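Predict the structure of Dipeptide epimerase.
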Amino acid sequence: MSGIRLTARVERWPVAGAFTISRGAKTHVDTLLVEAAAEGVVGRGEATAIYYHGETAEQIEQIVTALGMVPEDRSLLRNILGKGAARNAVDCALWDLDAKRSGRPAWRAAGLELPHAVTTAFTISLGDPERMEADARKAGGRYPLLKLKLAGEGDIERVAAVRRGAPEARLIVDANEAWTGRDVEAEATALVRYGVELIEQPVKAGQDHLLDGVTSPIPLCADESCQDRSDLARCIGRYEAINIKLDKAGGLTEGLALAAEARAAGLEIMVGCMLSTSLGVAPAFLLAQQARWVDLDGPLLLAKDRPGGFRFDGGTMMPHDPGFWGG
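Done. Here is the predicted structure for Dipeptide epimerase.
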């Protein structure tokens, strides 16, 4: 195959402390760095394996390494790679390569306006109410939007504790599928008094029919239930928003298309990320320009980030260097 030559390698990044959700805790994240080279120019893309799909960084590295080369036309990637982290890394590397070769920034090529600073949520890891209250108290003064990881049993107490710790912060919660079998409408109603403005993924992906007939006073957002455009039909009428993560969707190309179709269907947009460095969230930052909720705190949750990445002033994020990716 002639075209763009690819190389890939796995990198390990320590987490600041531990990142805990209902499925377990992480002390590090392995990311895949893909470089796409042509005519002496190199574009970079980063992806994090979707662990709940059984992906590993080593597996997606093998996929990209075996591929070796890809065509110049990014739209052909859908015919070569399935959705997921491997395609995300390759797709974003191609966007970066195109920007460097053409001198036209990725945001302009995507038909977007000049990117501006956005406010990202900061994640409060799952824990007992006392621990989450303490974490919220530390974060609440710096971050205006907090995202709470929940687990099902005891969630109301967790949210109440976070509200005590951060009385002025905006709150969104992520049930991570843990409300399957629970009364979603009752759980949501109990959270209204705490000012929660969004509930992510209350039920298991594939069991979204459990939301039929549910009238939630707080908007519900599909995360695991919405990977790419093929999932939109089952989300409409059950969720009010979708969380677009490029690792799920398979890159910025699909992410932009998914956002356009979701808006046309009347759904709100949230843009999120896996644990990742600034290189991993840089393409999503472009997509975040048109999102109601932004959750791109992956680099903030690491012990260190890539040089020249994003500058975070509390929850406000902007690149240190406009040319860091796709510039």
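The mean pLDDT is 95.
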